[in-house]
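This section describes the prediction task in plain terms. A model, or a person checking by hand, is given the sequence of a single protein chain and must write out its three-dimensional structure as a string of tokens. No templates, partner chains or ligands are provided. The sample shown here is typical of the held-out split.
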Amino acid sequence: MADTRAELLRALALVYHRRDGQRGMADFSGREDVRRWIAGRPDDTRSRDARGLASRVSLRVWPLVARGLDRKSARYFAELTLAGVRANFLAWAAAKHPARADYIRAAASSASDAVYAASAAAAAADAASAFTAAASASSYAAAAAASTSTSAPASAAYAAAAASGSASASAGRAAVWQTVSADATALETLGAALSLIDIPLWGEWHSDGGRAGRLEPSDMSPAISREWARLQVELSKRAGENWRVWLDWYDAILKGRPPWPALNEKQREDLTIAIALVEDKFWNQGPTVANREVRRLIDEALVHALPGEDELPKQVPSAAQFVVGPDGSIGLVPPGPEDRLTDTPAVRYFYSECREKALDIKQLGPQILGEILGGRIDRFLSRAPEDFSQALERDIWSIGNNLRGVRNAHVAVKDRKDLDILGHPAKLDPGAGEALGDWVETFNQLAFADPKLLARDSLRPGPQERDRTREEIALATPLVQNAIRHAGVVRADAAEELNDQQAAAVGAGEDLPGKQQTDHARSTFANFLAEALLGVYRTIHSAPSLARGEGGFVSREYFSGIYKEAGKRTFDAALIGGATAVYFSPQIVDFVLSNLDQFQAYCAVAFEHAPGAAQILRWLELSVEK
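The expected answer:
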């Protein structure tokens, strides 16, 4: 969209690029000028051009709907503002999607009539002229969307000029006619090459001192800018009426940006038509009901814009499994029978032998064992309980494989006499090295006896996979550590597992056990981060509309700080009848948002096979109000 917008602005600059013999800008000063210009347009563009002009001129002065508001006219404020914004939306929708204009013609006609009726009621009560004139511009713009008549766009331009004139006298009227003239000249010069409805509502001509120059986006005129600020304040005061849906929409149109940025072009078009076709029964009940229905449609579209859960990365069974718990934090999945060692006499025997020999090694003491071997033996014993039935095969293999790596590193340097004086972290005390060798032989027999351990031993990562594994771990490590530090994201059991795997990966060598260990750490990190993304997905997908904001944006504050408990209570209330165990995880959303760039870099490498990962991060980037 940014490239398209820049291209359109460059194209518009051509309109103002005058040379001798070339036609300059159209010069409108009244409604009859516009009517004649529309009548002279080619048959195949007349309807589109009329709708585009009418919509843009009405949108420019819509903020004036609040001007002149006083005690006498305040009673009509909500009714007239709602009717006016509906008419403007329909006029914009017809101009934006001309191929579907016929679908909304009846709604546009109804909206035009509603604005006229509300404006007439306000006028009868002697409301301020800018109040009713701005509304009249909306009525005429909607009429242009509902009809192919040439009179409606000219009337909209005239009413818009009158509304602006109420704000800044004749200079305001001249400014409006100047913008209409510029739009018309752009259409006349560039024709089908210009999508007028997609560029900012206000622009400013910058001369280079000669006959050429450029058109650049600018802020709206000061008088209208003041009223726009006032309108936002006034509408924001009206609690429960959900005006944010329209304030956000208008702000996007004002800047030439697509509304609802998390949606793709087709989704935006479908949502536009859905809002345009909201039935009169909603609009007739006032802003609380009508805007709530509009917000429901926006929320529904945003949820459907999320990827399907089946498009998110899946956890692999070979590493630790993670799950979001009732408190919204991530912990380890409780182990099942499939996670235990195979219960055979041979496996039980070699498992017991490994425990006994590890205890014997520990008796050598820290001075003999050194920091590396002593730490690995302690870790093995902490994960190898005396009760065989409680041992987890992935833990036994991971730590046992790590001890294999310690022995291989020792064997590689044990005969180097120069290291007796210089020292080397891999060279063990001769007695400790011999005891470790005996332990590894016993562990190899255990791995051969248990089919699950044997299957892990059979994995042989290739050279390219090794490089990729290292890259993934380098990207994942800061995410994992930030998650552990982020309040409420990681439970103690998961933190211990993640820290163990990080330490094992750091200490892994270039031999086969080291490659296998690094690959196992990669899978553990990937499982954890996949569950974090799933927690984000389920929170956003299942959260009530309050979390996604009235204008289609997620409030960052909803997922952190003082809003966290309020959000959880709202979510809990939305889970009627005890839904399946899907837990609200605002702290996980906040963690992902805090590390969005790093997450995107990681997913581009580790989860390239699961497009939903990148999609949900992009959705967060576009939908969360910073």
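For orientation: Residues 125 and 531 are 61 Å apart (CA to CA).
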